[in-house]
């Protein structure tokens, strides 16, 4: 015979299971309503025989590749029994993840707090607030993890993008980003890319792509493009997980101050370091090539693509290179696309822009 107290616990348990089932159904409905993102093809006359493809992750409903991650993190928390009806949700984020998580929290009717550095682009802070989220701003970017843990200790569900990105995504398939790219490449002249290029924020995207390439037995190599002096760039050289950044970066979403727990060094084939001025110049150039604005990390990826393509051209190779357009450029109208703001940061990408345009023979 269950005691009265026990019965209350079990009844509560049933209510929670019902809520969890309903929440999962809502996430599945959202996935069914969403279309896959486009794979844009660009021919650059300076690189005959090399096809450039850009996976446009800005076209998700929340404007960045973090839409995939946020969906996965909520699914992971629900299926692990860590997320209950009415429970507040928290995460540390430089912005893009927070926007996507706020969107999914609203979908599930849960209060959401984003812990972010005070220097995050104002537009992103407004976007989180417009979705009903609360922004808890910290002065030192290195403090975001401790502050998120502080909220979790008071009962919030910590989605923990930096701790869980690498495992929350089903790397074997289930329409993850790697499966989607390779399926979309199916009818191209070189369907098995020579390279896939992505950045490293949580490390989740690179882990998923690297694992999937092995799982499918492909020859495609994985290149991570990251800002010069980042924690990951420094850690990669010595395979040292304790390495720290030696330089700050203006490129949001990547260039982490430390080697995040989700980085899987073993599945990365090459790391290309990119100066911020080159990343910003490349983001400007992408607008000329694609007719739309994308964020700084898309520029970082593009610089690495060019470097890899030049090496292929020098060796007389042909093939395809796939890269990611990680988020919408509108988020950076007051920063990377604002010359006054750039001047105030002591950054002038004009010369880098001319050099890049020259390498593309767009002159
Ligand atoms: C998160 C992010 C990345 C890096 O992706 P990860 O999967 O977290 O490594 C790149 N660009 C932008 C804009 C991001 O928000």
TrEMBL record:
Keyword match Membrane: no
The protein's Enzyme Commission number: 2.5.1.47
Enzyme class: transferase
Molecular-function GO terms, alphabetical: cysteine synthase activity
Parts of the chain that traverse the membrane: none
Catalysed reactions, semicolon-separated: O-acetyl-L-serine + hydrogen sulfide = L-cysteine + acetate
Pathway: Amino-acid biosynthesis; L-cysteine biosynthesis; L-cysteine from L-serine: step 2/2
Keyword check for Transferase: yes
Protein name per Swiss-Prot or TrEMBL: cysteine synthase
Species whose genome carries this gene: Agrilutibacter niabensis
């Amino acid at each position: 015979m269950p005691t009265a107290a026990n019965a209350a616990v079990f009844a509560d348990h049933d209510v929670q299971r019902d809520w969890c089932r309903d929440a999962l159904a809502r996430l599945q409905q959202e996935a069914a309503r969403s279309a896959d993102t486009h794979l844009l093809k660009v021919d650059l006359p300076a690189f005959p025989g090399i096809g450039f493809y850009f996976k446009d992750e800005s076209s998700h409903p929340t404007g960045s590749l973090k839409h995939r991650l946020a969906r996965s993190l909520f699914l992971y928390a629900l299926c692990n029994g860590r997320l209950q009806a009415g429970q507040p949700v928290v995460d540390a984020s430089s912005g893009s993840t927070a926007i996507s998580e706020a969107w999914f929290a609203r979908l599930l009717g849960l209060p959401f707090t984003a812990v972010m550095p005070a220097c995050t682009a104002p537009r992103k802070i407004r976007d989180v607030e417009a979705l009903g989220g609360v922004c808890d701003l910290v002065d030192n970017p290195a403090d975001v993890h401790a502050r998120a843990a502080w909220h979790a200790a008071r009962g919030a569900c910590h989605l923990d993008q930096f701790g869980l990105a690498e495992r929350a995504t089903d790397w074997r398939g289930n329409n993850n980003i790697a499966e989607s790219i390779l399926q979309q490449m199916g009818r191209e002249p070189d369907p098995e890319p020579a390279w896939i290029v992505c950045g490293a924020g949580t490390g989740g995207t690179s882990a998923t792509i690297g694992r999937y390439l092995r799982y499918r037995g492909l020859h495609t190599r994985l290149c991570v493009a990251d800002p010069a002096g980042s924690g990951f760039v420094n850690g990669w050289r010595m395979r040292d997980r304790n390495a720290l950044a030696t330089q700050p970066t203006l490129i949001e979403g990547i260039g982490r101050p430390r080697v995040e727990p989700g980085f899987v060094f073993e599945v990365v084939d090459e790391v290309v370091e990119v100066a911020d001025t080159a990343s910003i110049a490349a983001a400007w150039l992408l607008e000329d090539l694609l007719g739309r604005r994308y964020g700084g990390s898309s520029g970082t990826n593009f610089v690495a693509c060019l470097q890899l393509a030049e090496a292929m051209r020098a060796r007389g190779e042909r093939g395809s290179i796939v890269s990611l357009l990680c988020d919408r450029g509108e988020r950076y109208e007051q920063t990377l696309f604002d010359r006054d703001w750039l001047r105030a940061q002591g950054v002038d990408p004009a010369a880098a822009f001319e050099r890049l345009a020259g390498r593309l023979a767009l002159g």
